[in-house]
Design a protein that fits this description.
Blueprint (H helix, E strand, L loop, with lengths): L31 E4 L4 E3 L4 E4 L4 E5 L1 H11 L8 H12 L3 E4 L11 E7 L3 H9 L6 E6 L4 H11 L2 E5 L5 H11 L4 E5 L3 E2 L4 H6 L7 E10 L5 H9 L9 E3 L12 E5 H7 L10 H11 L3 E12 L5 H22 L10 H11 L3 H19 L5 H25 L3 H10 L4 H17 L7 H26 L17 E5 L3
Parallel strand pairs: 4-15, 6-7, 6-9, 7-8, 11-14
Antiparallel strand pairs: 1-5, 2-3, 3-4, 9-13, 10-14, 11-13, 12-14
Protein backbone atom coordinates (compact mmCIF):
# COMPACT_ATOMS: atom_id res chain seq x y z
CA UNK A 1 0.00 0.00 0.00
CA UNK A 2 1.39 3.40 -0.95
CA UNK A 3 1.77 6.34 1.41
CA UNK A 4 -0.55 9.02 0.05
CA UNK A 5 0.60 12.47 -0.96
CA UNK A 6 -0.82 14.23 2.08
CA UNK A 7 0.37 17.59 0.85
CA UNK A 8 -2.40 17.37 -1.68
CA UNK A 9 -5.07 15.68 0.39
CA UNK A 10 -8.38 17.35 1.18
CA UNK A 11 -8.85 18.71 4.70
CA UNK A 12 -10.16 16.15 7.13
CA UNK A 13 -9.91 17.76 10.53
CA UNK A 14 -9.66 15.39 13.47
CA UNK A 15 -9.60 18.21 16.01
CA UNK A 16 -12.47 17.94 18.45
CA UNK A 17 -14.40 20.98 19.65
CA UNK A 18 -13.50 21.83 23.22
CA UNK A 19 -17.05 21.04 24.35
CA UNK A 20 -16.44 17.44 23.25
CA UNK A 21 -13.28 17.02 25.33
CA UNK A 22 -14.07 15.69 28.79
CA UNK A 23 -11.21 15.66 31.27
CA UNK A 24 -10.74 11.91 30.87
CA UNK A 25 -10.03 12.30 27.15
CA UNK A 26 -7.23 14.83 27.57
CA UNK A 27 -3.65 13.57 27.30
CA UNK A 28 -2.07 12.69 30.65
CA UNK A 29 0.15 15.22 32.39
CA UNK A 30 3.81 14.37 32.50
CA UNK A 31 4.26 13.03 28.98
CA UNK A 32 6.80 14.66 26.71
CA UNK A 33 5.99 15.88 23.23
CA UNK A 34 8.21 16.01 20.15
CA UNK A 35 7.55 17.74 16.85
CA UNK A 36 6.62 15.76 13.79
CA UNK A 37 9.50 15.67 11.33
CA UNK A 38 7.48 17.71 8.84
CA UNK A 39 6.56 20.49 11.27
CA UNK A 40 7.54 24.01 10.17
CA UNK A 41 7.66 26.57 13.00
CA UNK A 42 7.33 30.22 12.04
CA UNK A 43 6.77 33.62 13.62
CA UNK A 44 8.38 32.64 16.94
CA UNK A 45 6.31 29.44 17.09
CA UNK A 46 3.03 31.34 16.79
CA UNK A 47 2.49 29.68 13.43
CA UNK A 48 2.67 25.89 13.04
CA UNK A 49 2.58 24.34 9.57
CA UNK A 50 2.37 20.58 9.43
CA UNK A 51 0.24 17.57 10.21
CA UNK A 52 -1.71 15.34 7.91
CA UNK A 53 -3.56 16.67 6.04
CA UNK A 54 -1.48 19.82 6.04
CA UNK A 55 -2.67 22.40 8.58
CA UNK A 56 -1.83 25.97 9.48
CA UNK A 57 -2.31 26.40 13.20
CA UNK A 58 -2.08 29.85 14.79
CA UNK A 59 -1.21 30.14 18.46
CA UNK A 60 -1.43 32.95 20.95
CA UNK A 61 1.78 34.17 22.53
CA UNK A 62 1.05 32.00 25.55
CA UNK A 63 0.36 28.97 23.38
CA UNK A 64 3.59 29.56 21.47
CA UNK A 65 5.53 29.73 24.73
CA UNK A 66 3.99 26.46 25.94
CA UNK A 67 4.82 24.70 22.68
CA UNK A 68 8.37 26.01 22.89
CA UNK A 69 8.71 24.56 26.38
CA UNK A 70 7.46 21.17 25.15
CA UNK A 71 9.89 21.09 22.26
CA UNK A 72 12.71 21.98 24.66
CA UNK A 73 11.94 18.89 26.75
CA UNK A 74 9.50 20.18 29.36
CA UNK A 75 6.76 17.65 30.25
CA UNK A 76 3.10 18.41 29.73
CA UNK A 77 1.84 20.41 32.71
CA UNK A 78 -1.24 19.31 34.64
CA UNK A 79 -3.36 22.27 33.60
CA UNK A 80 -6.53 22.26 31.53
CA UNK A 81 -5.39 24.80 28.93
CA UNK A 82 -2.04 23.08 28.30
CA UNK A 83 -3.63 19.63 28.04
CA UNK A 84 -6.35 20.91 25.68
CA UNK A 85 -3.74 22.47 23.44
CA UNK A 86 -1.72 19.25 23.53
CA UNK A 87 -4.85 17.29 22.62
CA UNK A 88 -5.44 19.39 19.52
CA UNK A 89 -1.86 19.15 18.34
CA UNK A 90 -1.59 15.43 19.05
CA UNK A 91 -4.81 14.70 17.17
CA UNK A 92 -3.55 16.74 14.22
CA UNK A 93 -0.30 14.76 14.03
CA UNK A 94 1.69 17.96 14.57
CA UNK A 95 3.40 16.59 17.69
CA UNK A 96 3.84 13.05 19.03
CA UNK A 97 4.00 11.68 22.57
CA UNK A 98 7.13 10.30 24.18
CA UNK A 99 5.88 8.07 27.00
CA UNK A 100 7.72 6.51 29.91
CA UNK A 101 7.74 2.70 30.19
CA UNK A 102 5.33 1.31 32.77
CA UNK A 103 6.41 -0.97 35.59
CA UNK A 104 6.20 -4.74 35.14
CA UNK A 105 3.36 -4.81 37.67
CA UNK A 106 1.27 -2.69 35.28
CA UNK A 107 1.46 -5.35 32.56
CA UNK A 108 -0.90 -7.73 34.36
CA UNK A 109 -3.87 -6.10 32.63
CA UNK A 110 -2.59 -7.19 29.20
CA UNK A 111 -3.34 -10.54 27.58
CA UNK A 112 -1.04 -11.77 24.82
CA UNK A 113 -2.83 -13.50 21.93
CA UNK A 114 -0.75 -15.59 19.53
CA UNK A 115 -2.33 -17.11 16.41
CA UNK A 116 -0.32 -20.22 15.55
CA UNK A 117 -0.26 -22.32 12.43
CA UNK A 118 2.41 -25.03 12.11
CA UNK A 119 5.23 -22.74 13.30
CA UNK A 120 6.28 -24.56 16.48
CA UNK A 121 9.86 -23.25 16.37
CA UNK A 122 8.69 -19.64 16.21
CA UNK A 123 6.12 -20.22 18.93
CA UNK A 124 8.78 -21.67 21.25
CA UNK A 125 10.92 -18.54 20.92
CA UNK A 126 7.94 -16.23 21.27
CA UNK A 127 6.59 -17.92 24.41
CA UNK A 128 10.05 -17.98 25.96
CA UNK A 129 10.31 -14.20 25.76
CA UNK A 130 6.96 -13.37 27.40
CA UNK A 131 7.71 -14.04 31.06
CA UNK A 132 4.67 -14.25 33.34
CA UNK A 133 2.19 -12.49 31.07
CA UNK A 134 -1.18 -14.18 30.53
CA UNK A 135 -0.97 -15.82 27.10
CA UNK A 136 -3.63 -17.33 24.87
CA UNK A 137 -2.39 -19.41 21.93
CA UNK A 138 -4.94 -20.16 19.22
CA UNK A 139 -3.87 -23.18 17.17
CA UNK A 140 -5.50 -22.62 13.79
CA UNK A 141 -5.72 -26.33 12.87
CA UNK A 142 -1.96 -26.89 12.72
CA UNK A 143 -0.64 -30.18 11.36
CA UNK A 144 1.76 -30.38 14.34
CA UNK A 145 -0.89 -29.63 16.96
CA UNK A 146 0.63 -32.01 19.52
CA UNK A 147 3.95 -30.12 19.42
CA UNK A 148 2.15 -26.80 19.83
CA UNK A 149 0.12 -28.17 22.74
CA UNK A 150 3.31 -29.35 24.46
CA UNK A 151 4.85 -25.88 24.12
CA UNK A 152 1.77 -24.23 25.61
CA UNK A 153 1.83 -26.63 28.56
CA UNK A 154 5.55 -26.00 29.13
CA UNK A 155 5.12 -22.22 29.22
CA UNK A 156 1.77 -22.11 31.01
CA UNK A 157 -0.13 -20.64 28.08
CA UNK A 158 -3.84 -21.21 27.55
CA UNK A 159 -4.46 -23.20 24.36
CA UNK A 160 -7.54 -22.93 22.15
CA UNK A 161 -7.70 -25.10 19.07
CA UNK A 162 -9.53 -24.57 15.78
CA UNK A 163 -10.36 -27.88 14.13
CA UNK A 164 -10.57 -26.19 10.71
CA UNK A 165 -8.10 -23.57 9.52
CA UNK A 166 -9.89 -20.19 9.57
CA UNK A 167 -7.07 -17.68 9.04
CA UNK A 168 -5.21 -15.28 11.31
CA UNK A 169 -8.07 -12.82 11.73
CA UNK A 170 -10.43 -15.47 13.04
CA UNK A 171 -7.71 -16.89 15.30
CA UNK A 172 -7.08 -13.47 16.81
CA UNK A 173 -10.81 -12.98 17.38
CA UNK A 174 -10.94 -16.31 19.21
CA UNK A 175 -8.06 -15.27 21.43
CA UNK A 176 -9.64 -11.88 22.03
CA UNK A 177 -12.80 -13.59 23.25
CA UNK A 178 -10.78 -15.40 25.91
CA UNK A 179 -9.11 -12.22 27.21
CA UNK A 180 -10.29 -10.89 30.57
CA UNK A 181 -7.97 -7.88 30.61
CA UNK A 182 -8.50 -4.37 29.26
CA UNK A 183 -5.55 -4.58 26.84
CA UNK A 184 -4.56 -7.23 24.33
CA UNK A 185 -1.23 -7.70 22.59
CA UNK A 186 -1.42 -9.61 19.31
CA UNK A 187 1.87 -11.29 18.39
CA UNK A 188 2.66 -13.52 15.42
CA UNK A 189 4.85 -16.56 15.96
CA UNK A 190 7.55 -15.35 13.55
CA UNK A 191 8.31 -12.29 15.70
CA UNK A 192 11.24 -12.13 18.12
CA UNK A 193 10.68 -9.78 21.05
CA UNK A 194 13.11 -7.64 23.02
CA UNK A 195 13.20 -7.03 26.75
CA UNK A 196 10.86 -4.23 27.80
CA UNK A 197 8.96 -4.00 24.51
CA UNK A 198 5.54 -4.16 26.13
CA UNK A 199 6.34 -1.80 29.03
CA UNK A 200 6.91 1.05 26.61
CA UNK A 201 3.91 0.40 24.37
CA UNK A 202 1.47 0.08 27.27
CA UNK A 203 2.51 3.55 28.41
CA UNK A 204 0.63 5.04 25.44
CA UNK A 205 -2.72 3.91 26.86
CA UNK A 206 -2.62 6.48 29.64
CA UNK A 207 -4.12 8.61 26.87
CA UNK A 208 -7.72 7.40 26.73
CA UNK A 209 -8.07 8.29 23.05
CA UNK A 210 -5.39 5.80 22.02
CA UNK A 211 -7.03 2.65 20.69
CA UNK A 212 -3.92 0.83 19.47
CA UNK A 213 -0.17 1.23 19.18
CA UNK A 214 2.44 -0.66 17.18
CA UNK A 215 6.24 -0.85 17.34
CA UNK A 216 8.73 -0.92 14.52
CA UNK A 217 9.10 -4.41 13.06
CA UNK A 218 12.55 -4.93 11.60
CA UNK A 219 13.50 -7.90 9.48
CA UNK A 220 15.92 -10.23 11.24
CA UNK A 221 19.53 -9.68 10.12
CA UNK A 222 21.17 -12.35 8.00
CA UNK A 223 23.76 -12.95 5.33
CA UNK A 224 21.68 -14.36 2.49
CA UNK A 225 20.58 -12.09 -0.35
CA UNK A 226 16.94 -12.54 0.66
CA UNK A 227 17.66 -11.60 4.28
CA UNK A 228 19.68 -8.57 3.21
CA UNK A 229 16.91 -7.47 0.87
CA UNK A 230 14.27 -7.78 3.58
CA UNK A 231 16.37 -5.67 5.96
CA UNK A 232 15.99 -2.80 3.49
CA UNK A 233 12.56 -3.46 1.99
CA UNK A 234 10.43 -5.46 4.41
CA UNK A 235 6.75 -4.46 4.03
CA UNK A 236 6.43 -4.72 7.82
CA UNK A 237 9.17 -2.19 8.56
CA UNK A 238 7.48 1.21 8.50
CA UNK A 239 10.54 3.28 9.26
CA UNK A 240 12.02 5.29 12.10
CA UNK A 241 9.56 8.20 12.36
CA UNK A 242 6.82 8.42 14.96
CA UNK A 243 3.43 8.72 13.32
CA UNK A 244 -0.28 9.11 13.84
CA UNK A 245 -1.78 6.29 11.78
CA UNK A 246 -4.89 6.90 9.66
CA UNK A 247 -6.14 6.50 6.10
CA UNK A 248 -4.65 9.19 3.83
CA UNK A 249 -1.92 9.95 6.36
CA UNK A 250 1.74 9.40 5.41
CA UNK A 251 1.51 6.22 7.49
CA UNK A 252 -1.89 4.78 6.75
CA UNK A 253 -1.71 1.42 8.55
CA UNK A 254 0.30 -0.77 10.92
CA UNK A 255 0.50 -4.58 10.76
CA UNK A 256 -0.91 -6.86 13.42
CA UNK A 257 2.29 -8.91 13.62
CA UNK A 258 2.75 -6.95 16.85
CA UNK A 259 -0.17 -4.75 17.86
CA UNK A 260 -1.28 -3.69 21.35
CA UNK A 261 -4.86 -2.45 21.61
CA UNK A 262 -7.77 -1.78 23.92
CA UNK A 263 -10.06 -4.79 24.08
CA UNK A 264 -13.20 -2.64 24.20
CA UNK A 265 -12.09 -0.60 21.16
CA UNK A 266 -11.59 -3.74 19.07
CA UNK A 267 -14.88 -5.19 20.23
CA UNK A 268 -16.69 -1.96 19.38
CA UNK A 269 -15.09 -2.05 15.91
CA UNK A 270 -16.32 -5.61 15.40
CA UNK A 271 -12.97 -7.38 15.69
CA UNK A 272 -10.93 -8.64 12.76
CA UNK A 273 -12.84 -9.46 9.59
CA UNK A 274 -12.65 -13.25 9.59
CA UNK A 275 -13.40 -13.39 5.86
CA UNK A 276 -10.12 -11.66 5.02
CA UNK A 277 -7.03 -13.87 4.84
CA UNK A 278 -4.75 -10.88 4.21
CA UNK A 279 -5.16 -7.18 4.91
CA UNK A 280 -7.37 -7.88 7.92
CA UNK A 281 -5.06 -5.80 10.11
CA UNK A 282 -5.29 -2.78 7.79
CA UNK A 283 -9.07 -3.11 7.77
CA UNK A 284 -9.20 -3.19 11.58
CA UNK A 285 -6.92 -0.17 11.96
CA UNK A 286 -9.10 1.87 9.62
CA UNK A 287 -12.24 0.89 11.52
CA UNK A 288 -10.62 1.83 14.83
CA UNK A 289 -9.82 5.26 13.41
CA UNK A 290 -13.30 5.59 11.93
CA UNK A 291 -14.71 4.98 15.42
CA UNK A 292 -12.74 7.94 16.77
CA UNK A 293 -9.74 6.12 18.22
CA UNK A 294 -6.11 7.09 17.73
CA UNK A 295 -3.64 4.55 16.40
CA UNK A 296 0.03 5.31 17.00
CA UNK A 297 3.27 4.02 15.55
CA UNK A 298 6.19 4.16 17.96
CA UNK A 299 9.54 3.14 16.43
CA UNK A 300 11.29 3.77 19.76
CA UNK A 301 10.30 0.13 20.37
CA UNK A 302 11.47 -2.37 17.80
CA UNK A 303 11.11 -6.11 17.42
CA UNK A 304 12.43 -8.52 14.82
CA UNK A 305 10.48 -10.48 12.24
CA UNK A 306 11.71 -13.67 10.62
CA UNK A 307 11.63 -13.22 6.82
CA UNK A 308 10.47 -15.86 4.39
CA UNK A 309 13.10 -18.53 3.86
CA UNK A 310 12.68 -19.05 0.11
CA UNK A 311 12.24 -16.75 -2.86
CA UNK A 312 9.02 -18.54 -3.76
CA UNK A 313 7.59 -17.87 -0.29
CA UNK A 314 8.79 -14.26 -0.51
CA UNK A 315 6.99 -13.65 -3.81
CA UNK A 316 3.86 -15.43 -2.60
CA UNK A 317 3.80 -13.17 0.46
CA UNK A 318 3.94 -10.06 -1.72
CA UNK A 319 1.23 -11.44 -4.02
CA UNK A 320 -0.95 -12.16 -0.98
CA UNK A 321 -0.52 -8.62 0.30
CA UNK A 322 -1.51 -7.25 -3.09
CA UNK A 323 -4.57 -9.48 -3.29
CA UNK A 324 -5.97 -7.87 -0.13
CA UNK A 325 -6.23 -4.47 -1.87
CA UNK A 326 -9.45 -5.44 -3.65
CA UNK A 327 -11.12 -6.51 -0.39
CA UNK A 328 -9.98 -3.30 1.27
CA UNK A 329 -11.24 -1.27 -1.67
CA UNK A 330 -14.65 -2.89 -1.44
CA UNK A 331 -14.82 -2.01 2.25
CA UNK A 332 -13.09 1.36 2.40
CA UNK A 333 -13.27 2.88 -1.08
CA UNK A 334 -10.60 5.41 -2.02
CA UNK A 335 -8.62 4.81 1.17
CA UNK A 336 -6.84 2.08 -0.79
CA UNK A 337 -6.14 4.17 -3.91
CA UNK A 338 -2.78 3.17 -5.45
CA UNK A 339 -1.89 6.86 -5.96
CA UNK A 340 -3.25 10.03 -4.43
CA UNK A 341 -2.47 13.56 -5.48
CA UNK A 342 -4.22 16.80 -6.30
CA UNK A 343 -5.80 17.32 -9.71
CA UNK A 344 -3.22 20.02 -10.32
CA UNK A 345 -0.39 17.55 -9.82
CA UNK A 346 -2.15 14.91 -11.90
CA UNK A 347 -2.61 17.42 -14.73
CA UNK A 348 1.01 18.53 -14.53
CA UNK A 349 2.49 15.04 -14.63
CA UNK A 350 -0.07 13.81 -17.15
CA UNK A 351 0.79 16.61 -19.57
CA UNK A 352 4.51 15.95 -19.15
CA UNK A 353 4.00 12.23 -19.77
CA UNK A 354 1.99 12.99 -22.91
CA UNK A 355 4.93 14.93 -24.32
CA UNK A 356 3.79 18.44 -23.38
CA UNK A 357 6.18 19.52 -20.61
CA UNK A 358 5.38 23.20 -20.96
CA UNK A 359 1.70 22.50 -20.41
CA UNK A 360 2.68 20.49 -17.34
CA UNK A 361 4.81 23.35 -16.10
CA UNK A 362 1.87 25.69 -16.61
CA UNK A 363 -0.34 23.47 -14.47
CA UNK A 364 2.30 23.43 -11.75
CA UNK A 365 2.59 27.21 -11.84
CA UNK A 366 -1.20 27.53 -11.78
CA UNK A 367 -1.42 25.38 -8.66
CA UNK A 368 1.24 27.51 -7.00
CA UNK A 369 -0.67 30.70 -7.80
CA UNK A 370 -3.89 29.23 -6.42
CA UNK A 371 -2.11 28.15 -3.27
CA UNK A 372 -0.46 31.56 -2.90
CA UNK A 373 -3.86 33.18 -2.41
CA UNK A 374 -4.46 30.93 0.61
CA UNK A 375 -1.12 31.89 2.15
CA UNK A 376 -1.18 35.64 1.38
CA UNK A 377 -1.89 36.73 4.98
CA UNK A 378 1.07 34.72 6.29
CA UNK A 379 4.71 35.82 6.65
CA UNK A 380 7.03 34.78 3.79
CA UNK A 381 4.01 33.51 1.90
CA UNK A 382 5.70 33.35 -1.52
CA UNK A 383 8.67 31.27 -0.37
CA UNK A 384 6.38 29.04 1.67
CA UNK A 385 4.03 28.55 -1.26
CA UNK A 386 6.79 27.60 -3.68
CA UNK A 387 8.31 25.14 -1.23
CA UNK A 388 5.01 23.42 -0.33
CA UNK A 389 3.79 23.29 -3.93
CA UNK A 390 7.14 21.99 -5.17
CA UNK A 391 7.33 19.26 -2.55
CA UNK A 392 3.74 18.34 -3.28
CA UNK A 393 4.37 17.91 -7.00
CA UNK A 394 7.52 15.86 -6.38
CA UNK A 395 5.69 13.58 -3.95
CA UNK A 396 2.87 13.22 -6.45
CA UNK A 397 5.30 12.19 -9.19
CA UNK A 398 6.93 9.64 -6.91
CA UNK A 399 3.54 8.22 -5.91
CA UNK A 400 2.37 7.92 -9.50
CA UNK A 401 5.61 6.18 -10.48
CA UNK A 402 5.22 3.67 -7.65
CA UNK A 403 1.64 2.98 -8.73
CA UNK A 404 2.86 2.31 -12.28
CA UNK A 405 5.43 -0.18 -10.95
CA UNK A 406 3.01 -1.92 -8.60
CA UNK A 407 -0.74 -1.77 -9.20
CA UNK A 408 -0.73 -0.55 -12.80
CA UNK A 409 2.16 -2.47 -14.35
CA UNK A 410 -0.03 -4.77 -16.52
CA UNK A 411 -1.58 -1.68 -18.12
CA UNK A 412 1.84 -0.03 -18.40
CA UNK A 413 3.25 -3.05 -20.24
CA UNK A 414 0.28 -3.05 -22.62
CA UNK A 415 0.74 0.67 -23.35
CA UNK A 416 4.48 0.16 -23.91
CA UNK A 417 3.76 -2.58 -26.47
CA UNK A 418 1.21 -0.44 -28.30
CA UNK A 419 3.10 2.88 -28.12
CA UNK A 420 6.88 2.42 -28.31
CA UNK A 421 7.47 6.12 -27.60
CA UNK A 422 6.17 5.62 -24.06
CA UNK A 423 8.69 2.91 -23.19
CA UNK A 424 11.46 5.13 -21.77
CA UNK A 425 8.96 6.93 -19.54
CA UNK A 426 7.41 3.69 -18.31
CA UNK A 427 10.82 2.17 -17.60
CA UNK A 428 11.75 5.33 -15.70
CA UNK A 429 8.56 5.08 -13.63
CA UNK A 430 9.09 1.41 -12.82
CA UNK A 431 12.76 1.71 -11.89
CA UNK A 432 13.25 5.37 -10.93
CA UNK A 433 12.05 5.26 -7.29
CA UNK A 434 14.08 2.09 -6.64
CA UNK A 435 17.14 3.70 -8.18
CA UNK A 436 16.62 6.74 -5.96
CA UNK A 437 16.45 4.49 -2.88
CA UNK A 438 19.69 2.80 -3.93
CA UNK A 439 21.42 6.15 -4.35
CA UNK A 440 20.24 7.15 -0.88
CA UNK A 441 21.91 4.08 0.62
CA UNK A 442 19.35 1.27 0.47
CA UNK A 443 21.76 -1.26 -1.05
CA UNK A 444 21.10 -4.91 -0.20
CA UNK A 445 23.14 -5.85 -3.29
CA UNK A 446 24.70 -4.28 -6.35
CA UNK A 447 22.64 -1.89 -8.42
CA UNK A 448 21.44 -4.35 -11.07
CA UNK A 449 20.46 -7.07 -8.61
CA UNK A 450 18.78 -4.57 -6.30
CA UNK A 451 16.68 -3.12 -9.15
CA UNK A 452 15.79 -6.65 -10.30
CA UNK A 453 14.66 -7.64 -6.80
CA UNK A 454 12.61 -4.48 -6.34
CA UNK A 455 10.99 -5.08 -9.72
CA UNK A 456 10.14 -8.69 -8.81
CA UNK A 457 8.72 -7.46 -5.50
CA UNK A 458 6.54 -4.88 -7.26
CA UNK A 459 5.40 -7.25 -10.01
CA UNK A 460 4.35 -9.89 -7.46
CA UNK A 461 2.39 -7.31 -5.46
CA UNK A 462 0.71 -5.98 -8.61
CA UNK A 463 -0.17 -9.50 -9.74
CA UNK A 464 -1.93 -9.95 -6.41
CA UNK A 465 -3.83 -6.69 -6.86
CA UNK A 466 -5.16 -7.83 -10.23
CA UNK A 467 -5.91 -11.29 -8.88
CA UNK A 468 -8.03 -9.68 -6.17
CA UNK A 469 -9.79 -7.43 -8.68
CA UNK A 470 -10.71 -10.40 -10.86
CA UNK A 471 -11.83 -12.41 -7.83
CA UNK A 472 -14.04 -9.68 -6.36
CA UNK A 473 -14.95 -7.94 -9.64
CA UNK A 474 -14.23 -4.67 -7.83
CA UNK A 475 -11.68 -2.33 -9.41
CA UNK A 476 -11.64 0.28 -6.64
CA UNK A 477 -8.07 -0.68 -5.71
CA UNK A 478 -6.88 0.32 -9.20
CA UNK A 479 -8.44 3.78 -9.26
CA UNK A 480 -6.32 6.79 -8.27
CA UNK A 481 -7.68 9.44 -5.96
CA UNK A 482 -7.49 13.02 -7.24
CA UNK A 483 -8.92 15.34 -4.58
CA UNK A 484 -10.14 18.69 -5.87
CA UNK A 485 -8.07 21.82 -5.59
CA UNK A 486 -4.44 22.61 -4.91
CA UNK A 487 -2.72 21.81 -1.67
CA UNK A 488 -5.32 22.24 1.04
CA UNK A 489 -4.92 23.70 4.50
CA UNK A 490 -7.02 23.77 7.61
CA UNK A 491 -6.59 26.84 9.77
CA UNK A 492 -7.33 26.53 13.47
CA UNK A 493 -6.87 29.30 16.03
CA UNK A 494 -6.08 27.94 19.49
CA UNK A 495 -6.43 30.48 22.25
CA UNK A 496 -5.73 28.21 25.23
CA UNK A 497 -3.32 29.38 27.85
Amino acid sequence: MLPPNTLASPPTSVLLPETMLPETMLPPAGIRLVADTTLDLRDNRRLLIGGAPLRIIRLTDTGARIVGEWLNGEPLADTGPARRLARRLLDAGVVHPVVAPVADSDLADTTVVIPAYNDADGLAGCLGSLGDLPVVVVDDASENSAEIAALCQKHGAQLIRHHVNQGPGSARNTGLGAATTSLVAFIDTDVELRLGWLNHLVGHFEDRRVAAVAPRIRSRPGNTLLERYEQHHSPLDLGDRRALVAPRNPLSYVPAAVLVARVDAIQEAGGFDAEMRAGEDVDLVWRLVSNGGLVRYDPAVDVEHRPRDTWRAFLDQRRSYGSSAADLGARHGSHVAPARCSRWSAAAWGAAAAGHPMVGLGAAVGSTAALKRKFDPLPDSLAMTIRIAGIGHLHAGHGIARAVARAWWPLAVLIALMRPRTRPLIVAAMLGPSLLDWIRGSRPAGLIRTLALRLADDLAYGAGVWQGVLRTRDATSLIPDFPAGPTQTVENRTDQG
